[in-house]
Sequence to fold (893 residues):
Amino acid sequence: MHNVRPCRGPGVLARLELPEFPSPRPSPAGRGSSRAQSSKPLVATVSQTIGRQSSLSLCERTGVRGTWRPRFRSAGALLSLGGSLIALLSSTYAATLPKDLPFPLVERFESFGIKDGFPTHKVHCVLPASDGKLWVGTWKGLMVREEGKFRKIGVEDGLSHQMIVCLVEDTRTGDLWIGTMRGLNRYSAGRITVFTQTSCGLPNNVIYGLEILGDTLWVATAAGLGAMDLKTGTWSIYDHNNTVMHEPWVYSVTGAKDRLFVGVWGGGILEYELSKAIFKEHRDPDRDFHFDLVPDDGPVSDVTSWVAWADGILWQGTYFGLARYDGSRWRTWQEKKSPLLSNFVNCIYARGRVAWVGTDRGLSVTDGATWVNYRSNENGEGLIEIARPGQPMETRKIKTRLPDDFVLGISVDDHEAWFATSDGLGHGFFPPSAKTVTAAAAKNSTEKDKP
Amino acid sequence: MVGFANCGRCAYVDKEDKSTNYTTEPVLTPGTPSVLQIIAGEYPYYGNAPADMLPYRNIEPYYRYWLERLPFRGPGRDYPDPTNLTSLKVGLLSPPPYGPEAKRGEMSRKGVMLAFDEVNAARPPGKLPFELIEKADSPQWGSAANIAVEFSDKDVLGFIGTIDGDATHVALRVSLKIETFMVNCSDPDPTLTETQIPWLLRIFPDNRQQGYRLASLIVKERGLKRIVVLRTNNRPGRVGARPFVDAVRRLGSPILQEINFKEGERSFDTQVAVIKQAEPQAVLFWGNPAETGSAAARLRSAGVNAAFFGFDRLVDPQFAQFAGPAAEGATATFFFDPEKKDSAWTGFRQRFQKRYGIQPDIYAGYGYDGAQLLLDAINKAGPNRYRVHDQLTSLDEYRGVTGYMRFDGRWDNIAPVVTAHCKQGRWEFDPVASRQARLSNP
Fold:
């Protein structure tokens, strides 16, 4: 058997696009060095300057080596950059948060961790269940909050492995499905049932993602996508043998009404149309990981770490930036060229047309136009950064902050948000008026919330 | 009950990439200068590719990665050391003992074990010994992921492995979740480090370095324009040959054909017929030595007079054994001259010979170096995975028994490779001075 591949001919040179948000942010060279470098004030250096020069001076003044350089050689690009006013407004705690944003702001955080009985610092995932319980997956077991108190469920209680990676609730039965680093678990009426690759059709014991769509539980594993019929208990496996994926390394799965999106490591995103049983591939047109040739041309990378869908919008998380697909057009964002806090996207929660993006430098929230970032400064103080289209970025301090900026899991509803981080569980509160100020978001009610 | 698709999961055969949504990289006129300059303080771009082999070298991409290293920004460095340790554990993920990589894996394992023996023998009294936790992979996809979890369950402070690119990939993804560092000593898959996971250091020069050297040799030094690639029909073959295919296209000589063969193939009837029709000046082999040796023999007997080139596995004695007279004049890239006379390498060879009664190969050498690096990092950092991570990710260079290593922005060893020529069944290595690639920031 052989395969003869034709050579590709010459093509058309790609056109370079200008950045939408020229305001740069110094990139840390590491947690420790970041704190050391950013101890100098940012505010005065750039508040009244514009364009490329101000960007450079920001880098120089913050002492970050080579973190932001002019990449645009045309005069048009420079003019475009220069035309955008860059201002950072720093203040003490902002008594009133702005009310003109298309999604709610978190006005206050509280944290839970070892002091609250957690067995470890690291929290991977969080899921508020329909019965009011809060489920929290950690490095060392599953935590459940009932009547305000946390209780641990661990291997000693029958879980197949201590490291909980992902959770999903079957809202029709109340069953909780628990993905671990060694097997799938069902928690039903207080009983745990374990599913492993040797006891059922689970493709692999390392489970990265779970989704329930109709009567099917979809399981993203290190060796393919598993599908369990919840009525019959039968399994199907989707991998390189029966789909377009080249490698069966599946790392995320999300339902989208009549279809499924699957994040594949090195394979971009697979779109599976349920009614036709057809897989379609979304790949980065650049064909390479070293660069993004042009923005907005497709998935930002073929190495997908997360996919999330709501309201007809697909979001792709990668370690190379963030991408959005509305069914016809792609948008991409990277750090330094947009307000996205970091290219290293750990997780995304899609609600309405808004993505809550957990990165290794904090939380970015965006509808694709307006951005709000939550992170800590070098003194450990909480910061909110607000970037509106065509307006200067606004930075405010808040009294409370995320437990840690390394965000691994998110859950959001109308009233609150939960954050799984590398140093505990975060609880974010929206202002009481949040629902009224988020008319745009409310108008685009979340279809995902209506199974 | 498994619905379908459970058959053949172990026998992975690569398939044609049918996606058409790609930006086609133009073939530039030879001599087109690169606008991508190395900036002082940045790491060499694109695996230290020569300027004329850079992708889209006449335009500045919208965004370039790996000009600086990705830090791990999570917490953990200040976690208190465990107090109940009796040893400092390190994992070793080896290839399946009965698979095609078994021999190479066993040599790598021997190198690792020698390093453990020597380091433990030199530990001062009162210091905890290093303990090796060994696991062998299985051919089933995803097996390495399960093994990496087992390493975490054993509280290893880091792990070493493995040769097979597929297994290393899935283990690497787990390393991100378990936040445990992996040192790779034997996987040449260029895409491994392109996944952007900052928990990996690779000391084994990848196929990118060999691909650049071979492209330069064939197109620029030999002036050969009609090139055919014959490679294994699997993932390592696909991703391994790609840097070469891209590089010769960027030099203005796109390959005529990329032809696949199955592992274990011996007849090569179809492939030989297609290649002969193409009238190539150069044939590049990527695959295991028995297959490529057989292919070389068949091509010569069919009257194909093209020059033969190949990656490191051509240097394996099996290639010449299967190729017979067809091996004469073949050129291959290799990591270093195994007959080199520097004291680090000769000393290692003597110690290895004494310990095992056989001479080490390059897999043993890199296994030894990888283990030494990891053990040294643990020794300096203490029993804390995050501080071990910081030790290893701060490395820019290292000198081991295999030679000088230079690490780029993705923690790949970009030290130049050497070339060798098969003469009367023996491989003669070019002097180091003839290396084409130069370190940008030596």
Confidence is low (pLDDT under 50) at residues 1-95, 436-451 of chain A. DSSP finds six helices and 31 strands in chain A. Residues 51-62 of chain A form the longest helix (12 residues).
